[in-house]
């Protein structure tokens, strides 16, 4: 499917996630306020880290090899079987550890050991979350965009309804529980769509590991594990610092600002994942990769500039719509946060070439380095400029990250045997005049 076709279809899924996210954010903002939002953010980071740890072997590696072995059904089935077995083994091991250490984990993640039951709920749901991620990755690798869109829409709606019901029933505790179970509830729908579209059963996808494929998936798992550990920890460090120095209310405002950024970038980042990750994985020619990069930049640069401008000029109304009047103090940080969004999107296009070509060592080093840079700059800038300083730290980090990714891209193109590799001028060539 073409980039435009993929974007349009994916846009439908993004709109569904956007509307369900708006509804959920509104309920959360009214029910728990900025302080509760900060606590939710802490547990969300913890849950995201655990889920990413368990699903590391079943995400980007599965997308790459499913796309790469498009004409080899037996090899492709071996990829799925190996990934599913690895993912289930890892999720079972993590679940046992979480149950054994539930109170210390609850005390660390949300500073409340008495809420350790949330860790147990997350442990019980973990295997279903891993299987959900695996099935979505297979659909992505097969370029079954329509099925992937339907699965994402259904999952978003069901997860949001589950969360809204639990929040309405139990307030903050319900919101925290929803984070632990929402993806596992979506698995039921994803499995139904997968069975109809692909025809493979879960039973056929669990069995003997292929050692060669396990090593290949292991490279991607290392990248996923790195992100699973360092990114949430960096967020938790930043949130904890803001809570200790400026109060949990400011930490909640920062969390809401990040949530708006996630919603803002949803179409762009999900399109990069759905279209460019399998597409870049197929490309082994430097010239073709250069052309695809230009197409990607020509797509993302004007779009992110347009959406950022609309958000900036409508920021007052957007905060009132998505959240409530209690979140209006975050408006001062909107400008630098949107600048960070723009820089992030431009840097992600070359970053996906690194991910799709399995440059494990470079990925691990840059992920650790820039997570540390983000946490460090956020802490440093926020000490003198408060919430606005935290947003400036985000923008500065992605400026440095983007420059680094273009140098990484030059090395990849040189390795693929290109003519002199592109530099930042590609962005200028790609942007419309």
TrEMBL record:
**CDD domains xref list:** MATE_like_10
Transmembrane annotation, as ranges:
45-63, 83-105, 117-140, 147-169, 175-195, 216-237, 257-277, 297-314, 334-355, 362-381, 387-409
Q: Name one GO biological process term.
A: enterobacterial common antigen biosynthetic process
Top-level taxon of the source organism: Bacteria
| Gene Ontology cellular-component annotations | plasma membrane
Question: Under what name is this protein listed?
Answer: O-antigen translocase
From what organism does this protein derive? Scleromatobacter humisilvae
Per the record, the major location class is membrane
**Compartments where located:** Cell membrane
How this chain sits in the membrane, per its record, is: Multi-pass membrane protein
Instruction: Give UniProt keywords alphabetically.
Output: Cell membrane, Membrane, Transmembrane, Transmembrane helix
